[in-house]
Amino acid sequence: MARRPLIVIGSGLAGLTCAWASGPEGCILLTAGALTDGAASTWAQGGIAAALSPDDSTALHAEDTWRAGAFAGDRAVIDRITGVAPEVVRLLVELEVPFDRAPDGSIDLALEGGHSRSRVAHAGDHSGAAVTAAMAQAVLAAPQVDVREHHTVTRLLADASGAICGVEVRRRDGSLEVIPADRVMLATGGMGGLWAHTTNPTTALGQGVALAARVGARTDDLHLVQFHPTALDVARDPMPLLTEALRGAGAHLLSDGARFVDELQPRDVVAAAVWEQLTEGRTVCLDARGIDRVATRFPAVADLTAASGLDVTRDLLPVRPALHYSMGGVTVDDTGRSSVPGLWAIGEVSRTGLHGANRLASNSLLEAVVTGRAAASDAIAWSGAWPRTVEPAGPATIRSRTDRARSGGARSDDGSLLLAQVRETLDSACGVLRDGPTLQAAVDRLEPHVGNDAAYAAWLIARSALAHPASVGAHRRTDSVLPEGVSA
Description:
The chain is α/β, with parallel strands linked by helices. The chain is built from 14 helices and 19 strands. It folds into three domains: about 1-225 and about 325-395, 3-Layer(bba) Sandwich (FAD/NAD(P)-binding domain), CATH 3.50.50; about 230-325, Alpha-Beta Complex (Flavocytochrome C3, Chain A, domain 1); about 400-465, no CATH class. The strands form five sheets. It has a five-stranded parallel β-sheet with strand order 6-2-1-10-18, covered by helices on one side. A five-stranded antiparallel β-sheet has the order 12-16-15-13-14, with helices on one face. It has a three-stranded antiparallel β-sheet with strand order 3-5-4.
């Protein structure tokens, strides 16, 4: 009997890498829009972290990742992924990613917050777009990859034993199609669009988490989301991002004109410091005027500030923290396997353990490539056995679409909360600072509407934040309870 095709859902860097790495067997790549549309990886300005300089090592990269993640990551995963980072950069060079070069021809390496060495390979300040475009070209040149654009996955299908048996897809004309499958790669990206202040595409609504959780996949650390400290505070949705590399190049954060924080600390520390200044009524700005040739070194930043009536060479740039990245997601093992047989998760939708409680700058594109390749290799070799490497989900987290809205809040015609209300709820309850009563109110507000995917994902996030009373990394509770064994 012919083998069912491998299904890859999503065309960001993780999904594209997986499709490219599927080799002669190939796959069906499903993407909701045109290829790479709405992929957060195309928006990444920084680059890919890798120990490439003589004064650096993969061990130092691992240590910085471990430390930035508040010592909450999986050390074996951290060592494994940072250990192959130089190889990943060499692969991308072979795929003709135009990394910036130093005068001697070597890859120019930038310094970013949380890194003890200059180790970020970059292509100007549009690295994500350059890397993703190169991988997309490789996929389009692979005849064994069947790219199906404008195919939105609405449901994962499981058989009586709980194993994946297909996907339900809405095509461009609105019709539904069921594609039989026993191997599905979830590469749907993050959840940042669920917050009112975000640097993510507003289409990043946690669809993958909702799809997976509805068929019983375990999720972990959904409360661990990173706020970028320097989103440009202008009336745009999503908010323009002022790259970490600006601070690495010497830009300063000013509160009413005075410096107040070491700008090169990990993002959670800087974001909390900015938030504190804002809540005390001060104006926080990023001063990049002292950076030599700032407009030519950071052309994307120059363009986006100009679009908001600001000049990066002359003006102070108003900033505030905004939701940027999800450290949690669908829990997976080293090969990307979830707790549901036949379901892998890769990239930002997954919880690998690399990031711990706070992502180190420029580790996300690295993770996308590494997990995409590993999962593709595992799926190709898979013979049908699915040993329990990931514990099953708690029954209380599994909700179906038949759990329709019952009451409360601003509602759409089907009774579910309007997306704007979901975003407002998470923004106020799961922002930079959280507290138990506000989180409980958010859980109660969202729970009647979990039949809707966005509300379901938001409920899972708020529920996770409520269940974790101790502050760690980017999860900061104002009513924090110290972990057992820790003294004040």
